[in-house]
Design brief:
It comes from Agaricus bisporus var. burnettii (strain JB137-S8 / ATCC MYA-4627 / FGSC 10392) (White button mushroom). This is Protein kinase domain-containing protein. One of its GO terms (molecular function) is protein serine/threonine kinase activity. This protein starts with a helix and ends in a 6-residue tail after the last helix. The chain is of the alpha+beta class and 463 residues long. It has a domain at 1-185 and 239-288: Phosphorylase Kinase, domain 1. The protein is globular and about 65 Å long. Helices cover 34% and strands 13% of the residues. A 6-stranded antiparallel sheet has the order 1-2-3-4-6-5. The chain has a 3-stranded antiparallel sheet with strand order 7-9-10. The chain has helices at 2-5, 9-12, 16-22, 25-31, 79-87, 127-135, 141-147, 149-152, 202-222, 243-253, 307-310, 313-317, 330-333, 341-356, 370-381, 386-389, 395-398, 417-424, 432-442, 453-457; strands spanning 62-63, 66-71, 97-106, 116-125, 164-172, 175-182, 185-188, 225-226, 235-238, 296-298, 305-306.
Length: 463
Protein backbone atom coordinates (compact mmCIF):
# COMPACT_ATOMS: atom_id res chain seq x y z
CA UNK A 1 0.00 0.00 0.00
CA UNK A 2 2.92 2.37 0.70
CA UNK A 3 3.99 2.15 -2.93
CA UNK A 4 0.56 3.35 -4.03
CA UNK A 5 0.65 6.30 -1.61
CA UNK A 6 3.94 7.47 -3.11
CA UNK A 7 2.61 7.47 -6.66
CA UNK A 8 1.99 10.82 -8.30
CA UNK A 9 -1.52 11.57 -9.68
CA UNK A 10 -0.57 10.56 -13.21
CA UNK A 11 0.83 7.22 -12.07
CA UNK A 12 -2.35 6.51 -10.10
CA UNK A 13 -4.31 6.48 -13.36
CA UNK A 14 -2.17 3.77 -14.92
CA UNK A 15 -4.04 0.52 -15.46
CA UNK A 16 -2.52 -2.93 -15.65
CA UNK A 17 -3.80 -3.42 -19.20
CA UNK A 18 -2.30 -0.16 -20.44
CA UNK A 19 0.99 -0.53 -18.61
CA UNK A 20 1.58 -4.02 -20.01
CA UNK A 21 1.44 -2.53 -23.51
CA UNK A 22 4.33 -0.17 -22.69
CA UNK A 23 6.68 -2.67 -21.06
CA UNK A 24 10.15 -3.15 -22.50
CA UNK A 25 10.14 -6.62 -24.18
CA UNK A 26 13.68 -7.22 -22.97
CA UNK A 27 12.64 -6.66 -19.35
CA UNK A 28 9.64 -8.94 -19.72
CA UNK A 29 11.78 -11.60 -21.37
CA UNK A 30 14.27 -11.46 -18.48
CA UNK A 31 11.48 -11.96 -15.92
CA UNK A 32 10.41 -15.06 -17.87
CA UNK A 33 13.91 -16.55 -17.79
CA UNK A 34 15.06 -15.00 -21.09
CA UNK A 35 12.09 -16.40 -22.99
CA UNK A 36 9.91 -14.74 -25.60
CA UNK A 37 6.77 -16.54 -24.40
CA UNK A 38 5.48 -17.27 -20.90
CA UNK A 39 7.05 -20.48 -19.53
CA UNK A 40 3.78 -21.32 -17.78
CA UNK A 41 0.74 -19.08 -17.18
CA UNK A 42 0.48 -15.98 -19.42
CA UNK A 43 0.31 -13.65 -16.43
CA UNK A 44 0.37 -10.47 -18.52
CA UNK A 45 -2.76 -11.33 -20.49
CA UNK A 46 -5.65 -9.35 -19.05
CA UNK A 47 -9.35 -9.90 -18.57
CA UNK A 48 -9.91 -8.30 -21.97
CA UNK A 49 -7.64 -10.98 -23.46
CA UNK A 50 -9.83 -13.65 -21.88
CA UNK A 51 -7.58 -14.35 -18.88
CA UNK A 52 -6.64 -12.14 -15.92
CA UNK A 53 -4.53 -14.26 -13.56
CA UNK A 54 -4.12 -13.50 -9.89
CA UNK A 55 -0.80 -11.71 -10.26
CA UNK A 56 -0.42 -11.45 -6.47
CA UNK A 57 0.30 -15.18 -6.19
CA UNK A 58 3.98 -16.01 -5.65
CA UNK A 59 6.01 -18.35 -3.50
CA UNK A 60 6.24 -17.15 0.11
CA UNK A 61 3.39 -14.65 -0.14
CA UNK A 62 0.22 -14.63 1.93
CA UNK A 63 -3.13 -14.76 0.16
CA UNK A 64 -6.43 -14.51 2.06
CA UNK A 65 -4.81 -15.89 5.19
CA UNK A 66 -3.03 -18.72 3.36
CA UNK A 67 0.72 -19.01 3.03
CA UNK A 68 1.74 -20.05 -0.50
CA UNK A 69 4.59 -22.54 -0.18
CA UNK A 70 4.83 -24.33 -3.54
CA UNK A 71 3.34 -23.99 -7.01
CA UNK A 72 2.27 -27.38 -8.37
CA UNK A 73 0.41 -26.83 -11.63
CA UNK A 74 2.03 -26.22 -14.98
CA UNK A 75 0.22 -24.32 -17.72
CA UNK A 76 1.53 -24.29 -21.29
CA UNK A 77 -0.06 -21.45 -23.22
CA UNK A 78 -1.24 -22.04 -26.76
CA UNK A 79 -3.71 -20.26 -28.98
CA UNK A 80 -5.71 -23.44 -29.61
CA UNK A 81 -6.47 -23.71 -25.90
CA UNK A 82 -7.78 -20.14 -25.84
CA UNK A 83 -10.00 -20.79 -28.84
CA UNK A 84 -11.30 -23.99 -27.24
CA UNK A 85 -12.35 -22.04 -24.15
CA UNK A 86 -14.01 -19.25 -26.10
CA UNK A 87 -16.03 -21.67 -28.24
CA UNK A 88 -16.68 -24.36 -25.65
CA UNK A 89 -19.99 -25.03 -23.95
CA UNK A 90 -18.74 -27.14 -21.08
CA UNK A 91 -17.13 -25.84 -17.92
CA UNK A 92 -13.57 -25.71 -19.16
CA UNK A 93 -11.57 -23.70 -16.66
CA UNK A 94 -8.85 -26.24 -15.94
CA UNK A 95 -6.29 -24.29 -17.95
CA UNK A 96 -7.55 -20.95 -16.58
CA UNK A 97 -6.26 -21.49 -13.07
CA UNK A 98 -3.01 -22.04 -11.28
CA UNK A 99 -2.54 -24.39 -8.35
CA UNK A 100 -0.56 -23.90 -5.16
CA UNK A 101 0.18 -25.82 -1.99
CA UNK A 102 -0.85 -23.67 0.94
CA UNK A 103 -0.14 -23.81 4.64
CA UNK A 104 -2.80 -22.59 7.05
CA UNK A 105 -3.91 -22.91 10.67
CA UNK A 106 -6.65 -25.52 10.98
CA UNK A 107 -8.77 -25.02 14.09
CA UNK A 108 -10.02 -28.29 15.58
CA UNK A 109 -13.53 -28.70 16.96
CA UNK A 110 -12.33 -28.67 20.55
CA UNK A 111 -11.64 -25.20 21.96
CA UNK A 112 -9.00 -26.68 24.24
CA UNK A 113 -6.74 -27.76 21.39
CA UNK A 114 -4.49 -25.30 19.59
CA UNK A 115 -4.87 -24.90 15.81
CA UNK A 116 -2.60 -27.12 13.76
CA UNK A 117 -0.67 -26.22 10.62
CA UNK A 118 -2.28 -28.01 7.69
CA UNK A 119 -1.43 -28.34 4.00
CA UNK A 120 -4.05 -27.97 1.28
CA UNK A 121 -4.14 -27.16 -2.42
CA UNK A 122 -5.44 -23.79 -3.61
CA UNK A 123 -6.64 -23.52 -7.21
CA UNK A 124 -6.91 -19.86 -8.18
CA UNK A 125 -9.21 -19.01 -11.10
CA UNK A 126 -8.50 -16.24 -13.54
CA UNK A 127 -10.68 -13.15 -13.47
CA UNK A 128 -12.34 -14.32 -16.71
CA UNK A 129 -13.19 -17.74 -15.30
CA UNK A 130 -14.38 -16.16 -12.04
CA UNK A 131 -16.80 -13.87 -13.89
CA UNK A 132 -18.10 -16.75 -15.97
CA UNK A 133 -18.79 -18.76 -12.82
CA UNK A 134 -20.75 -15.89 -11.28
CA UNK A 135 -22.86 -14.93 -14.31
CA UNK A 136 -23.64 -18.41 -15.63
CA UNK A 137 -27.07 -19.83 -14.74
CA UNK A 138 -25.36 -23.22 -14.30
CA UNK A 139 -23.64 -24.23 -11.08
CA UNK A 140 -20.08 -25.45 -11.80
CA UNK A 141 -19.75 -29.21 -11.29
CA UNK A 142 -17.05 -28.74 -8.63
CA UNK A 143 -19.37 -26.64 -6.48
CA UNK A 144 -22.41 -28.85 -7.15
CA UNK A 145 -20.44 -31.88 -5.94
CA UNK A 146 -19.15 -29.89 -2.95
CA UNK A 147 -22.74 -29.07 -1.93
CA UNK A 148 -23.55 -32.79 -1.81
CA UNK A 149 -20.38 -33.95 -0.06
CA UNK A 150 -22.16 -35.29 3.02
CA UNK A 151 -24.42 -37.42 0.82
CA UNK A 152 -21.74 -38.56 -1.62
CA UNK A 153 -19.18 -39.40 1.06
CA UNK A 154 -20.97 -42.70 1.64
CA UNK A 155 -20.34 -43.83 -1.96
CA UNK A 156 -17.22 -46.03 -2.36
CA UNK A 157 -16.18 -44.02 -5.41
CA UNK A 158 -16.18 -40.68 -3.60
CA UNK A 159 -12.76 -41.41 -2.10
CA UNK A 160 -11.38 -41.67 -5.63
CA UNK A 161 -12.69 -38.28 -6.74
CA UNK A 162 -10.61 -35.15 -6.25
CA UNK A 163 -13.21 -32.84 -4.72
CA UNK A 164 -13.50 -29.43 -3.08
CA UNK A 165 -13.09 -28.94 0.64
CA UNK A 166 -14.44 -25.41 0.35
CA UNK A 167 -14.36 -22.41 -1.99
CA UNK A 168 -13.70 -18.72 -1.45
CA UNK A 169 -12.59 -15.55 -3.21
CA UNK A 170 -9.21 -13.81 -3.16
CA UNK A 171 -8.19 -10.45 -4.59
CA UNK A 172 -5.34 -9.19 -6.71
CA UNK A 173 -4.60 -5.97 -8.55
CA UNK A 174 -7.02 -7.21 -11.22
CA UNK A 175 -9.99 -7.85 -8.91
CA UNK A 176 -11.61 -10.87 -7.26
CA UNK A 177 -10.77 -14.47 -8.10
CA UNK A 178 -12.78 -17.59 -7.27
CA UNK A 179 -10.61 -20.18 -5.52
CA UNK A 180 -11.10 -23.87 -4.84
CA UNK A 181 -9.44 -25.50 -1.83
CA UNK A 182 -8.77 -29.24 -2.19
CA UNK A 183 -6.56 -31.84 -0.59
CA UNK A 184 -2.95 -31.93 -1.74
CA UNK A 185 -2.27 -34.65 -4.32
CA UNK A 186 1.06 -35.76 -5.72
CA UNK A 187 2.06 -36.84 -9.22
CA UNK A 188 -0.31 -37.64 -12.03
CA UNK A 189 -0.04 -41.09 -13.59
CA UNK A 190 1.48 -39.39 -16.63
CA UNK A 191 4.57 -38.25 -14.71
CA UNK A 192 4.71 -40.72 -11.85
CA UNK A 193 8.03 -41.99 -13.23
CA UNK A 194 10.34 -40.84 -16.05
CA UNK A 195 9.28 -41.42 -19.64
CA UNK A 196 10.28 -44.92 -20.74
CA UNK A 197 9.99 -46.24 -17.17
CA UNK A 198 6.30 -45.59 -16.54
CA UNK A 199 4.64 -48.88 -17.46
CA UNK A 200 2.47 -50.50 -14.80
CA UNK A 201 2.28 -54.21 -14.12
CA UNK A 202 -1.06 -55.87 -14.76
CA UNK A 203 -2.07 -56.15 -11.06
CA UNK A 204 -1.32 -52.45 -10.47
CA UNK A 205 -3.07 -51.43 -13.70
CA UNK A 206 -6.14 -53.40 -12.59
CA UNK A 207 -6.06 -51.66 -9.22
CA UNK A 208 -5.95 -48.25 -10.88
CA UNK A 209 -8.72 -49.07 -13.38
CA UNK A 210 -10.99 -50.31 -10.61
CA UNK A 211 -10.52 -47.08 -8.65
CA UNK A 212 -11.17 -44.94 -11.73
CA UNK A 213 -14.36 -46.91 -12.43
CA UNK A 214 -15.49 -46.38 -8.84
CA UNK A 215 -14.98 -42.63 -9.30
CA UNK A 216 -16.92 -42.70 -12.58
CA UNK A 217 -19.72 -44.72 -11.01
CA UNK A 218 -20.08 -42.04 -8.33
CA UNK A 219 -20.02 -39.26 -10.92
CA UNK A 220 -22.45 -41.01 -13.30
CA UNK A 221 -24.95 -42.62 -10.93
CA UNK A 222 -25.03 -40.13 -8.07
CA UNK A 223 -24.33 -36.81 -9.80
CA UNK A 224 -25.49 -37.46 -13.37
CA UNK A 225 -22.35 -35.89 -14.77
CA UNK A 226 -20.16 -37.06 -17.63
CA UNK A 227 -16.48 -36.45 -16.87
CA UNK A 228 -15.40 -36.05 -20.57
CA UNK A 229 -11.66 -35.97 -19.83
CA UNK A 230 -10.55 -39.34 -18.40
CA UNK A 231 -6.80 -39.67 -19.06
CA UNK A 232 -3.57 -40.27 -17.17
CA UNK A 233 -2.95 -36.52 -16.86
CA UNK A 234 -6.16 -36.18 -14.83
CA UNK A 235 -5.52 -39.11 -12.48
CA UNK A 236 -3.45 -38.23 -9.42
CA UNK A 237 -1.76 -40.43 -6.85
CA UNK A 238 -3.01 -39.66 -3.35
CA UNK A 239 -0.39 -38.94 -0.71
CA UNK A 240 -0.28 -41.74 1.89
CA UNK A 241 -1.27 -40.81 5.43
CA UNK A 242 -0.17 -38.96 7.42
CA UNK A 243 -0.06 -36.61 4.43
CA UNK A 244 0.84 -33.37 6.24
CA UNK A 245 3.92 -34.83 7.93
CA UNK A 246 5.03 -36.51 4.69
CA UNK A 247 4.78 -33.20 2.83
CA UNK A 248 6.64 -31.38 5.57
CA UNK A 249 9.43 -33.98 5.67
CA UNK A 250 9.78 -33.88 1.88
CA UNK A 251 9.98 -30.07 1.82
CA UNK A 252 12.66 -30.07 4.54
CA UNK A 253 14.70 -32.73 2.75
CA UNK A 254 14.23 -31.17 -0.72
CA UNK A 255 14.27 -27.37 -0.45
CA UNK A 256 13.52 -25.57 -3.69
CA UNK A 257 16.66 -24.16 -5.30
CA UNK A 258 14.69 -21.97 -7.68
CA UNK A 259 11.08 -20.79 -7.34
CA UNK A 260 10.89 -18.27 -10.21
CA UNK A 261 12.09 -18.10 -13.80
CA UNK A 262 13.57 -14.62 -13.56
CA UNK A 263 13.62 -11.44 -11.45
CA UNK A 264 10.28 -9.98 -10.33
CA UNK A 265 8.60 -7.66 -12.81
CA UNK A 266 7.75 -4.33 -11.16
CA UNK A 267 4.65 -2.53 -12.43
CA UNK A 268 3.40 0.85 -11.24
CA UNK A 269 -0.20 -0.36 -11.54
CA UNK A 270 0.25 -3.18 -9.01
CA UNK A 271 1.16 -3.08 -5.31
CA UNK A 272 3.43 -6.14 -5.67
CA UNK A 273 5.71 -7.23 -8.52
CA UNK A 274 4.63 -9.97 -10.90
CA UNK A 275 6.55 -13.23 -10.48
CA UNK A 276 6.69 -16.01 -13.07
CA UNK A 277 6.81 -18.91 -10.63
CA UNK A 278 8.20 -22.37 -11.34
CA UNK A 279 5.88 -25.36 -10.86
CA UNK A 280 7.14 -28.25 -8.74
CA UNK A 281 4.69 -31.16 -8.47
CA UNK A 282 5.10 -33.38 -5.43
CA UNK A 283 6.57 -36.75 -6.49
CA UNK A 284 4.51 -39.69 -5.24
CA UNK A 285 7.46 -42.05 -4.87
CA UNK A 286 9.45 -39.33 -3.09
CA UNK A 287 6.69 -39.10 -0.48
CA UNK A 288 7.03 -42.74 0.52
CA UNK A 289 4.25 -44.07 -1.70
CA UNK A 290 4.39 -47.56 -3.19
CA UNK A 291 2.90 -48.69 -6.50
CA UNK A 292 1.42 -51.85 -4.99
CA UNK A 293 -0.67 -49.81 -2.53
CA UNK A 294 -1.36 -46.82 -4.77
CA UNK A 295 -4.60 -44.93 -4.32
CA UNK A 296 -5.63 -42.68 -7.20
CA UNK A 297 -8.07 -39.82 -7.50
CA UNK A 298 -9.79 -38.66 -10.67
CA UNK A 299 -9.62 -34.89 -11.04
CA UNK A 300 -10.83 -32.52 -13.73
CA UNK A 301 -14.50 -32.33 -12.78
CA UNK A 302 -14.41 -28.67 -13.92
CA UNK A 303 -14.86 -30.05 -17.43
CA UNK A 304 -17.69 -32.39 -16.48
CA UNK A 305 -21.05 -31.91 -18.13
CA UNK A 306 -24.55 -32.65 -16.99
CA UNK A 307 -25.97 -35.62 -18.87
CA UNK A 308 -29.18 -33.66 -19.43
CA UNK A 309 -27.19 -31.13 -21.50
CA UNK A 310 -25.28 -33.77 -23.47
CA UNK A 311 -28.51 -35.44 -24.57
CA UNK A 312 -30.19 -32.27 -25.84
CA UNK A 313 -30.81 -32.17 -29.58
CA UNK A 314 -29.57 -28.59 -29.90
CA UNK A 315 -26.33 -29.53 -28.14
CA UNK A 316 -25.69 -32.40 -30.56
CA UNK A 317 -26.73 -30.29 -33.56
CA UNK A 318 -24.21 -27.61 -32.60
CA UNK A 319 -21.40 -30.09 -33.17
CA UNK A 320 -19.97 -29.79 -29.66
CA UNK A 321 -16.95 -31.99 -29.15
CA UNK A 322 -15.69 -33.40 -25.88
CA UNK A 323 -12.73 -35.47 -24.75
CA UNK A 324 -9.10 -35.21 -25.86
CA UNK A 325 -9.08 -35.79 -29.65
CA UNK A 326 -7.07 -39.03 -29.65
CA UNK A 327 -9.29 -40.51 -26.91
CA UNK A 328 -12.58 -39.38 -28.42
CA UNK A 329 -15.45 -41.87 -28.57
CA UNK A 330 -16.87 -42.42 -32.07
CA UNK A 331 -20.31 -41.06 -31.14
CA UNK A 332 -18.77 -37.67 -30.32
CA UNK A 333 -17.02 -37.42 -33.68
CA UNK A 334 -20.05 -38.69 -35.61
CA UNK A 335 -22.48 -36.48 -33.66
CA UNK A 336 -24.61 -39.10 -32.02
CA UNK A 337 -26.40 -38.08 -28.77
CA UNK A 338 -23.74 -38.93 -26.24
CA UNK A 339 -23.94 -39.80 -22.58
CA UNK A 340 -21.59 -41.00 -19.85
CA UNK A 341 -20.80 -43.95 -22.15
CA UNK A 342 -18.06 -41.72 -23.62
CA UNK A 343 -16.21 -41.99 -20.29
CA UNK A 344 -16.36 -45.78 -20.48
CA UNK A 345 -14.83 -45.66 -23.98
CA UNK A 346 -11.76 -43.86 -22.62
CA UNK A 347 -11.19 -46.54 -19.96
CA UNK A 348 -10.04 -48.84 -22.80
CA UNK A 349 -7.25 -46.54 -24.02
CA UNK A 350 -6.42 -45.76 -20.38
CA UNK A 351 -5.73 -49.42 -19.64
CA UNK A 352 -3.62 -49.69 -22.78
CA UNK A 353 -1.63 -46.60 -21.78
CA UNK A 354 -1.00 -47.94 -18.27
CA UNK A 355 0.34 -51.23 -19.63
CA UNK A 356 2.35 -49.97 -22.62
CA UNK A 357 3.03 -46.27 -21.93
CA UNK A 358 1.71 -45.64 -25.45
CA UNK A 359 -1.46 -44.28 -27.04
CA UNK A 360 -3.99 -46.75 -28.44
CA UNK A 361 -4.98 -44.26 -31.15
CA UNK A 362 -1.73 -42.38 -31.80
CA UNK A 363 -1.93 -39.12 -33.67
CA UNK A 364 -0.24 -35.73 -33.49
CA UNK A 365 -2.84 -33.49 -31.83
CA UNK A 366 -1.63 -30.43 -33.77
CA UNK A 367 -2.48 -32.14 -37.06
CA UNK A 368 -5.33 -34.23 -35.68
CA UNK A 369 -7.78 -35.62 -38.24
CA UNK A 370 -11.23 -37.01 -37.51
CA UNK A 371 -10.86 -39.26 -40.55
CA UNK A 372 -7.61 -40.81 -39.32
CA UNK A 373 -9.08 -41.34 -35.85
CA UNK A 374 -12.17 -43.09 -37.22
CA UNK A 375 -9.98 -45.23 -39.46
CA UNK A 376 -7.87 -46.33 -36.51
CA UNK A 377 -11.04 -47.29 -34.61
CA UNK A 378 -12.27 -49.37 -37.54
CA UNK A 379 -8.86 -51.02 -37.91
CA UNK A 380 -9.02 -52.20 -34.29
CA UNK A 381 -12.73 -52.82 -33.80
CA UNK A 382 -14.24 -53.47 -37.21
CA UNK A 383 -17.06 -51.61 -39.02
CA UNK A 384 -19.63 -49.46 -37.22
CA UNK A 385 -23.07 -51.03 -36.67
CA UNK A 386 -25.67 -49.72 -39.13
CA UNK A 387 -28.22 -49.06 -36.40
CA UNK A 388 -25.71 -46.80 -34.64
CA UNK A 389 -24.78 -45.00 -37.87
CA UNK A 390 -28.43 -44.34 -38.73
CA UNK A 391 -28.63 -41.94 -35.78
CA UNK A 392 -25.31 -40.16 -36.40
CA UNK A 393 -25.77 -36.63 -37.76
CA UNK A 394 -22.32 -36.65 -39.40
CA UNK A 395 -22.50 -40.14 -40.88
CA UNK A 396 -22.50 -38.87 -44.49
CA UNK A 397 -19.50 -36.68 -43.81
CA UNK A 398 -17.24 -39.63 -43.05
CA UNK A 399 -18.92 -42.81 -44.32
CA UNK A 400 -20.73 -43.93 -47.46
CA UNK A 401 -24.12 -45.66 -47.66
CA UNK A 402 -22.53 -49.06 -46.90
CA UNK A 403 -20.84 -47.78 -43.73
CA UNK A 404 -17.35 -47.78 -45.26
CA UNK A 405 -14.98 -44.90 -44.59
CA UNK A 406 -14.96 -42.31 -47.37
CA UNK A 407 -11.51 -40.97 -46.61
CA UNK A 408 -9.49 -44.02 -45.64
CA UNK A 409 -5.80 -43.65 -46.35
CA UNK A 410 -4.00 -45.97 -48.77
CA UNK A 411 -2.38 -47.67 -45.79
CA UNK A 412 -5.23 -49.51 -44.08
CA UNK A 413 -3.88 -51.76 -41.34
CA UNK A 414 -6.51 -53.99 -39.75
CA UNK A 415 -4.98 -54.99 -36.46
CA UNK A 416 -6.06 -56.86 -33.36
CA UNK A 417 -5.63 -55.80 -29.77
CA UNK A 418 -4.15 -59.20 -29.05
CA UNK A 419 -1.39 -58.75 -31.64
CA UNK A 420 -0.79 -55.19 -30.48
CA UNK A 421 -0.32 -56.15 -26.84
CA UNK A 422 1.82 -59.11 -27.89
CA UNK A 423 4.22 -56.83 -29.78
CA UNK A 424 4.74 -54.64 -26.72
CA UNK A 425 5.51 -57.65 -24.53
CA UNK A 426 4.01 -55.92 -21.52
CA UNK A 427 1.60 -58.67 -20.49
CA UNK A 428 2.19 -62.41 -20.11
CA UNK A 429 0.83 -64.28 -23.11
CA UNK A 430 -1.74 -66.19 -21.06
CA UNK A 431 -3.06 -62.90 -19.61
CA UNK A 432 -3.56 -61.16 -22.97
CA UNK A 433 -7.01 -62.65 -23.79
CA UNK A 434 -8.46 -61.32 -20.53
CA UNK A 435 -7.03 -57.84 -21.09
CA UNK A 436 -8.34 -57.79 -24.67
CA UNK A 437 -11.82 -58.95 -23.65
CA UNK A 438 -12.08 -56.19 -21.03
CA UNK A 439 -10.82 -53.52 -23.42
CA UNK A 440 -13.27 -54.61 -26.10
CA UNK A 441 -16.15 -54.12 -23.66
CA UNK A 442 -14.97 -50.56 -23.07
CA UNK A 443 -14.55 -50.01 -26.84
CA UNK A 444 -18.01 -51.30 -27.79
CA UNK A 445 -18.87 -49.24 -30.90
CA UNK A 446 -22.57 -48.81 -30.15
CA UNK A 447 -22.76 -46.67 -26.99
CA UNK A 448 -26.13 -48.17 -26.08
CA UNK A 449 -24.46 -51.57 -25.78
CA UNK A 450 -21.38 -50.32 -23.95
CA UNK A 451 -21.36 -51.46 -20.30
CA UNK A 452 -21.67 -48.96 -17.46
CA UNK A 453 -19.04 -48.33 -14.79
CA UNK A 454 -21.11 -50.42 -12.39
CA UNK A 455 -21.22 -53.35 -14.83
CA UNK A 456 -17.48 -53.22 -15.50
CA UNK A 457 -16.77 -53.25 -11.77
CA UNK A 458 -18.59 -56.59 -11.65
CA UNK A 459 -16.55 -58.03 -14.55
CA UNK A 460 -14.83 -61.28 -13.59
CA UNK A 461 -11.52 -60.12 -15.07
CA UNK A 462 -11.41 -57.03 -12.86
CA UNK A 463 -12.69 -58.76 -9.75
Amino acid sequence: MQANQNQNPNQAQITFENEVQTLDPAVVSLSMGNRNNPPEEPLLLSLQDGFGYNVAAANGRALSGFHLVRKTSRFIFNTAGLVEFMLGVAWNVSFLMDSWIILYHHRLCSDTLAPTLTYAALKIMTKRASIDIHVSPLVPPDIEIYKRTSQLRLHPGFNHCATLQWHLATTSGLGRHVCYVTEVLSSTLANLRPRGQNRFTLPIAKRIIKQVLLALQCLHDEMWYTHTDVKVEKIFAAIPEPADSRIQEYREANPSAYTMYGPPLHLQSLPQPVVFSISEPLPYLGLGGSLEDITVKLSGSSRSMSISICERDDFVAAGNYAQPPTLRAPEVTLRYPWTNAIDIWTVGPLLFRLLTEESLFPQDEETYSHEVHLQRIVELSGPFPQEFLSKCADRDRYLDETGSLKHATAVFNPDSLQELLGRFGCVDEDEIPGVVAFMRKCLTLDPKLRPSARQLLEDDWLV
